[in-house]
Every structure is written in structure tokens, then in C-alpha cells.
Amino acid sequence: MDQAELFERMVKPAEMVLAFDCPEDVMEQRLLKRGETSGRSDDNAETIRKRFATFVEQSMPVISHYEQLGKCHKISAVPPPDEVFKHVQAAIEGRAVHATSDDAVQLEVPLVSGELHPDASIIFVLGGPGSGKGTQCDRIKAKYGHTHLSAGDLLREEVKSGSAVGKQCEQIMKEGKLVPMEVIIGLLRAAMIKSGGSQFLIDGFPRAMDQAELFERMVKPAEMVLAFDCPEDVMEQRLLKRGE
After folding, report:
1. Is cis: bond before 81, omega within 30 of 0?
2. Average pLDDT of 32-58?
3. What's the CA gap between 72 and 39, in Å, rounded?
4. Does pTM surpass 0.85?
5. Residue whose C-alpha is closest to residue 59's, from 116, 119, 3, 118
6. HEC profile for 24-43?
7. Most buried by CB count within 10 Å: which residue of 84, 119, 161, 239?
8. How confident is the model at residue 200 (pLDDT cuts 50, 70, 90)?
């Protein structure tokens, strides 16, 4: 971090950070393979593991710092180079490419100009349907001024807008498939930046651990989680009442 801080003082702040994410076992395999022909003395198992430890200790805090500033684009380096470069191009050209399964549609969510507020604070609001999340979010927004975002509402708005990604999402949902979580997170991040706010309530998301982990990699970690606990019979009663 001291190198990053000194560079930004002596030169200027970076516009973007490309962070190539790759499991240690894959990196070790690649370096050992390279060592067969490179002649490099540091391409051996013992030295490689020491280099990994140095990377985790010194470089990971740099990546985390720029993730919090909304400047870091984390790209999986596991696929073949041509596939990795597609994501590099997307980051540089200001768009996000989200690969789905081989038989699914590839979606692109345009990135909005600007950056997430450096002091952005995120609260995840979780609870079953009918647990009162929406009501409490309205009260928090009124009292504290948070920006209230619902992943479901953002997706419906995107579909209603008739945008290219909205049409693709609509088709995916008609086929009974799930919209890729990268797209949902991309919509949330874009809405956060557009709002210009710094305090956010994210309602009904994440719904699974992989969504939480990906959100924290793509955006930033949540400061707090509000989980509304409500018995199923009470939620059912409320939903039936609302359905009248």
C-alpha cells in the first residue's frame, strides 16, 4: 500500500485497477510448467509458495483498497487468454461482460460513468416474503436518508425499459431460468453510482452465499445486515391479507 500511496502523491491517482484472480494451485502449476523451459531459478515449488505468501501479505490489501474505491475490476485468469482478454477489453471500454453457461445468453450490463462514493455504507436487508422488509426500509429511508434499492425492482425496471439487456433478461425469465447474479449485481452497482448517495439499503439481496461473496468482490463489503425474523404462519397470513 505504501507504494500505491506514494505513486498517487508523486504522480496521480490510478483511474482503474485490473486484478487477475487465479487460484494458487493453478498459478503454481503454470509456474512449474514455465520452469521446465524458462531456466528461471525462482520457478520452483519452494520459492513459488514464498512468492504466494508475499503476494497475499502485500498485494491483496492494495486490491481491497481499490475495490472499496470502486476502481478495481477483478477478472478471473483461469480461462484461456483470449477469453480473459474479452473481460479486460470490457473493463477498459467501460462495459461489463457477464458470461453465463454455455447454452445461455451472454449479457452485457453497461457501466455508468462515475464511481461509487468512497465512504459508501451498505446495509443488506433480509427476511422472508411478508416479514415487513419494505415497511421498515421506508421508515429507515425517512429517518436516516438512506437510498433504498431492491434487486427485484431494478430488474423489473430494466425489463420495462426495453434495453438490450432488459430484453435478454425477460427472455431468460420466460424460459424459467435465473438471471445471472453478475447482472443483478451490475444493476445494483449502477443504481448506487447514479443515485450519488453514500448510504444504501439493499432489500432482498443477497439470497445465497455465492451472491453475497460476488457482491462483495464486485462492489464492496456490507457494513451491516438486518435480518427480519418472522414465523411462516404470520408471513402467510400477511401475504394472504395483502392479496385481498
Report:
1. no
2. 73
3. 34
4. no
5. 3
6. HHHHHHHHHHHHHHHCCCCC
7. 84
8. very high
